[in-house]
Amino acid sequence: MPHYVYILQSLKDQKYYVGETHGVEARLQFHNSGKQRSTRNRIPFKIVVVEIFENRIDALQREKQIKSWKGGMAFKKLIAGM
After folding, report:
1. Domain extent for 40
2. Domain of 69: which CATH number?
3. Residues 31/39, Cβ–Cβ less than 8 Å
4. What is the pLDDT of residues 36-52, one digit of tens each?
5. How far apart are CA 78 and CA 14, in angstroms?
6. What's the number of domains the chain is made of?
7. Kindly report the CA angle at 24 between 3 and 32, in degrees rounded to 5?
8. CB count, 10 Å around CB of 73?
């Protein structure tokens, strides 16, 4: 089953959230419904980046890598589509 790494942007404060899932649209709805405690105060969100992986292990490794970039030039290039 494919897994995805996604980056959401809050339309409220323009900050980003990085996550991993097997269903991106369902996960976006989950965040926007206010059921995710860590993002509840920042809804609504929009999807800005989605990457697909063959398995969860690879997706989790990529999620960790992207989170380590947060705020840096590599992260800015990724969300800019470069």
Report:
1. 3-80
2. 3.40.1440
3. yes
4. 999 999 999 999 999 99
5. 16
6. 1
7. 145
8. 8
Answer for the pair 1, 57: CB distance below 8 angstroms, yes or no: no
Structure tokens at 22: 């097997």
Place of tokens 């999807």: 47
Q: What is the DSSP string of 32-72?
A: HTT-STTTGGG--EEEEEEEEESSHHHHHHHHHHHHHHTTS
- Which regions in the chain score pLDDT beneath 70? 82
Provide the pLDDT for residue 71.
Answer: 80
Q: Are 30 and 75 in contact (CB under 8 A)?
A: no
Q: Is pTM beyond 0.85 here?
A: yes
Pairing type for strands 16-21 and 3-10 reads antiparallel
